[in-house]
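hi!! sorry for the late reply, been swamped w classes. u asked for the two structures so here they r. pasted raw, havent cleaned anything up. first the sequence of the first protein and right below it the tokens
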Amino acid sequence: MKIQESAENYLETILMLGHQKPYVRSIDIANELGFSKPSVSVAMKNLRSNGHILMDGNGHITLTESGRLIAETIYERHTALSEWLIKLGVAKETAVGDACRIEHVISAESFEAIKAHIKRNP
């Protein structure tokens, strides 16, 4: 399923924050990404209406199965690409920034080929 890059970033952020905190709220996402609370609220409404997140009465956000699948895919790409670029000699900050852009546009086929290459050449 193809969704917008911004939605992928929000889902990835929810996943990562969920590993650090007992629950994730819109304000946590706003603080992490440096976005305004109203912008995050609009994005959460869109993610909720598309079935990617659930929000309870306390404002706690959880990923649905589809949201978790997208978030984990993007996070795997981000992690693998960052580590690979660093191993190639790219400065960490540059590698992380480049991986963040690449993770949204790379095809599944190309990413699988990179993963296979990394496994063969640790």
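now the second protein. again sequence first, tokens right under
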Amino acid sequence: MSLKLMYITNNPQVAKIAADAGVDRLFVDMEVLGKAERQGGMNTVQSHHDPDDIAVLRDAVGPGVEIMARTDPMNEGLADQIEASIRNGADVIMLPMWKTADDLRCLVDMVAGRALTMPLLETPDAVDHLDEALTVPGIDQLHIGLNDLHLGYHRRFMFELLADGTVERLCRRIGDAGIPYGFGGVGRPGSGTLRAECILGEHVRLGSSFVILSRSFCNTSLVTDYGEMEQIFRGGVKEIRRVERDCAAWKAEQFEENRQNVIESVKQIIGA
């Protein structure tokens, strides 16, 4: 089964371009609470979207494309934020920075079956409580957030968690619970500090179902011409699908060779 490709935007024209190119899930990012403090000084995306953006995207792309809302972390206003997201047409609710199974029980209660739930596993506390969290009824999917998780573990580079086996161990635990999962983000094949092809090979090896298209896939702060965006999206998605097909035909030795390439590449990156 192909990876579901997810892309963050609240721009309806960009959303239509992405959806037409084969992006499966658009991603409205409303998370602001605590994010600047956690990621201060890092070159990370802080989107400041709101629930009204969901309705705008829904009108732009129609019913055939999923729209996910990443909310703020647990706070007194979360129920209202989830209500507004679902009312505006969100198909999936992503909760960031959760720490305990009780957080997920609250999430499930707030969503009440009206959308899918996809908690974002990105804190060491959540990892410590994962076994109990995986027993919470109503958790539909999980995504491993490498950016905040590597900060939580005081690592220098987010893909250290892929190289050292942390991601594999988490994937196996989630998969054993029968919950679909994904991890991190990826750029266009042929690009990336850690090559996108290597990352995609690990997604296939680990049975991942989801990946976020990173800002570098199509940085709309730099690329402002919609015709150029369309070319980037169509070409980039086509290349990702090609790499997926190639990896699906690999033998065990090729997956192991790619895993070792990831380990050696990460060592070089953090040592540079």
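hope this helps!! also noticed smth abt the second:
The chain has a mean pLDDT of 94.
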